[in-house]
Design brief:
Actin, Chain A, domain 4; 3 domains; six-stranded mixed sheet; 16 helices; 21 strands; globular; chromatin regulator; Actin-related protein 4
Length: 433
């Protein structure tokens, strides 16, 4: 069996918004970069000739596009570059992009040879058997990793807080998921999920600002020129061949920063009239203009608690039809606990863990606890736990993986390359339940 003490394992958490990678045993990931890729089709380049020679369709597909991964590569605007996510509904749909993200993490960010390190990969609770086998194939066949382990996000978050049983509320970029974990196992049938995550809130904020006439200029679309010491003039630049998806990606980066800087969850449900005279908060955009943000600071975070607020945001009408099917965060928590076995409900109510990037929002923990206290049974002791450190909330899945992979008692759990060669990819179901 793999004896993993000499070489430290690598922990990779590929989230819907950011990829985190680093060495097991450390307290924060070394590499953090967006989990999207810039793609340029190269069909018009001579590679189409080579593609005809290689009858393998995979080579053809790869010849068709060049992928750019990492904050620096994506920060540089290129003609006709589309920004693509490998995920669809929280599950990997494009393995080429995942491959290039892993490759970037190992070779560019960590500068390691994957052949020498066992790999612990975090996976969503909803991951299918097919996805797990595909991940194992890629790790063993392409990267030649000596050993692999797949662990559920929620279990790792629970681990990071030192608990074996908890209810994990993971507010990620692409969705928010409520997952009961009992004795280190996910209770699959009681998982609740909603498409309202960090990126959805960012889009709500962008549309709301646009309706007030505030357009966010992407960083590539202007240049600032100093006309007098301390005084700048903004010169607009026009790039005809910039794709819509790249423009949106660049705008989202700025809108996301506005959201993280000024938004806070209101103490009570948001009512437009109560916030109409609220003092505004200034925010300086990259092009130098200062905008004032008023009620939106409270309204946008409240969408997590009350999804029907989406209907009042101009430009978000396309999401209005999903609203009736989406429940607010407190309701999801209570429904998920009520589906669980009666014996563990008390314990789940008293250890609700907040995790994910969106969970770092100010006052989110206090608001969730307050609403749960009002709606839960009187006998329940409601306790919402969230690390006081925003970095730990954001990276709790990765930190859990880092703790797990460095435990001595975990070393016999690895799914080794020898086992893979002997039993095939499907054996991962037995090794990583």
């Amino acid at each position: 069996m793999y004896g993993g003490d000499e070489v430290s394992a690598i922990v990779v958490d590929l989230g819907s918004h950011t990829c985190k990678a680093g060495y097991a045993g450390e307290d924060a990931p070394k590499a953090i970069f967006p989990s999207v890729a810039g793609a340029i089709d190269q069909m018009d380049i001579d590679e189409s000739d080579n593609a005809e020679k290689n009858s393998v369709s995979a080579d053809k597909a790869k010849g068709k596009r060049k992928l750019y991964v990492g904050s620096q590569s994506l920060g540089y605007r290129r003609d006709h570059m589309e920004v693509l996510s490998p995920f669809k509904d929280g599950i990997v749909a494009d393995w080429d992009i995942v491959d290039s993200i892993w490759d970037h993490a190992f070779r560019e960010c960590l500068s390691i040879d994957p052949k020498e390190h066992p790999m612990l990969l975090a996976e969503p609770s909803s991951n299918t058997q097919q996805q797990r086998e595909r991940a194992a194939e890629l790790m063993f066949e392409k990267y030649k990793a000596p050993a692999l382990f797949l662990a559920k996000n929620a279990v790792l978050t629970s681990f990071a807080s030192g608990r074996a049983t908890s209810l994990v509320v993971d507010c990620g970029g692409g969705s928010t998921t409520v997952v009961p974990v009992h004795d280190g196992y996910v209770l699959q049938k009681d998982v609740a999920t909603t498409p309202i995550g960090g990126e959805f809130l960012t889009d709500c904020l962008m549309k709301s600002l646009e309706s007030k006439g505030i357009m966010i200029k992407p960083r590539y679309s202007f240049r600032r020129k100093e006309i007098r010491p301390g005084e700048f003039q903004t010169v607009d630049l026009d790039f005809q061949n910039t794709t819509e998806s790249y423009k949106l990606y660049s705008q989202r980066l700025i809108a996301s920063d506005i959201k993280e800087s000024v938004c806070l969850a209101p103490d009570t449900p948001f009512v437009e009239s109560a916030y109409s005279n609220i003092p505004t908060t200034p925010y300086e955009l990259p092009d130098g203009q200062t905008i004032e943000i008023g009620a939106d600071r409270f309204k946008i975070p409240d969408v997590l608690f009350n999804p029907s607020l989406v209907r009042t945001i101009p430009g978000m009408e396309s999401f209005a039809e999903i609203v009736p099917t989406v429940r607010g965060l407190p309701q999801m928590v209570i429904d998920s606990i009520n589906k669980c076995d009666v014996d563990i409900r008390r314990e789940l109510f008293s250890s609700i863990l907040l995790a994910g990037g969106t969970a770092s929002m100010h006052q989110l923990k206090e608001r969730l606890e307050k609403e749960l206290l009002e709606e839960s049974p009187h006998a329940a002791r409601v306790k919402v736990l969230a690390s006081g450190n925003a970095t730990e909330r954001r990276f709790s899945v990765w930190i859990g993986g880092s703790i797990l992979a460095s435990l001595g008692s975990f070393q016999q759990m690895w799914f080794s390359k020898t086992e893979y060669e002997e039993h095939g990819a499907s054996y991962i179901q037995r090794r990583c339940p």
